[in-house]
Amino acid sequence: MLVMVVGLNLLPVKFYGETEFWFAGLKVLTIVGLLILSIVLFFGGGPSHERLYFRYWKDPGATKELIVQGDAGRFVAALSTLLSSVLPFTFSPEMVVVTAGEVQSPRRNLPKIARNFFWRLIVFYIGGTIAISVICPSNAPALTSGSSGAAASPWVVGIKNAGIKGLDSVINAVVVTAAWSAGNSFLYLASRSLYSMACEGSAPRIFKRCTKQGVPIYAVIASSLFSLLAYMNVNSNAADVFNWLLNLVNTGGFISWVCCGIIYIRFRKACDVQNLPKSALVARSFLQPVGSYISLVIFGLLCLLNGFTVFFPSRWSVADFLSAYIGLPLFIVIYFVHRFLHRADSWAISSHEVDLKTGLAELEAEESLEEPKEGLRARFKRHVGRS
C-alpha cells in the first residue's frame, strides 16, 4: 500500500485527483450507509429486532472516568478525548488551500470546497460520533484491549454486536481504503508544502525541481521517507515512540492554527488600512475577523493543555511530558534562529506595505476567460423558467 501511495504521488496531479475523487465517493457512500444503518438499529431493525435507543449512554455510560473519580474524572476524560480527537483534523483544512495552485478557477471553486468541508464535518464527523455511541458500547473488549487494526473500529464492533454477518468484513475493507486515501492526501500535502518552501527559499532548491508533468519529484521522494516511521507500530516498544511523534504532530497542528489566526488578523488589518472593501474578498465568513481571535484563544489553550494528564502524580512521565510540550520551545527556537539569520529584515511588514495586488489582475483575467460549470440548481431554475 505504501508503494502505491508514493507511486500515485509521483504521477501527474490529474491521477491523484481522479483517485481521490473515487476514494472520497467511496467514503461518503460508506458513512451515509453506516448512518442509515445506525438509525435502523436504533429503532430495532437489526436481525434481533432489539431496539437500542440510547441504552449505551446509560450503561456503560456516555462518559467514562479517567485518572480521578466522579465528575472531575469525567471532565478529565472529556478533555483528554477532545485533545486526542484533534489528530484526524490536523492539517486537513490546509488541504483545501494547498490544492489552490493546481485546481481550476481557485477563486471560484475554493470557497465552494471550503463550505462543503464545513458541512461534511458537521454531518459525517459529529453525526458519525453520535451514531457510534448508539451502536457500540464504550466498554467493548475490542476497544478497551488496546488492539489495533480495522477490527478495533467501533463501526465493526457495533455491526458484530448487531449480528449482521459479512458486513463487518466490508467495513474492514473500507477502513483500509480510507487509510490509503489519508496517506495519499497527506503525502501530497507534505510534498507540495516542501515544494512551496523551496520556491520561496526556505528549503533547499533541489525540492523545487519538477518533472515535465509538473510533479515536484524530489519533494515527493523526501516526504515519502517519513512514511517509513509507520513501521514503528510493528514493535510494541517502538509504538510508544510513534505515539510521542503523534503528540508532536498535535502540538504542530495547534501552533499552525494559532499562526493562521495571527496571519488572517494581519491580512484583514491590511485590507482595512489599504481601504480594500469586504466585497473584494472572494471567500468570506460571517464570523471573521472575530473568529480568528476566538481560534487564537481556543487553540492556544489546547496547545498548553496538550499533555495535561502527565501532571497527575500517577501519570507523570518525562518522555510523555517532552513529547507533548517539546514542540513549543522547538518552534520558538526555530523562529528566533530564522530572525537571527534574517536580522536585516523587519520583524513584521507594515499593514500599509502588505502586497495585496501583485498577480491579482492576471488571476482575475485568467478566470474571466473560463466558462463556469452550471450547477444542478442553476440548471433546474433554467428549465423551470423555460416552462
UniProtKB/TrEMBL annotation:
Gene Ontology MF, one: amino acid transmembrane transporter activity
Swiss-Prot/TrEMBL keywords: Membrane, Transmembrane, Transmembrane helix
Domain Amino acid permease/ SLC12A: 2-341
Keyword Transmembrane helix listed: yes
Pfam families on file: AA_permease (PF00324)
GO cellular component terms given for this protein: membrane
Membrane topology listed for this record: Multi-pass membrane protein
Entry's transmembrane regions: 20-45, 117-135, 170-190, 215-232, 244-265, 286-312, 318-337
Subcellular location: Membrane
PANTHER family assigned: AMINO ACID PERMEASE, PROLINE TRANSPORTER (EUROFUNG)
Protein name (Swiss-Prot/TrEMBL): Amino acid permease/ SLC12A domain-containing protein
Source organism of the structure: Glomerella acutata
The organism's taxonomic lineage, starting at the top: Eukaryota, Fungi, Dikarya, Ascomycota, Pezizomycotina
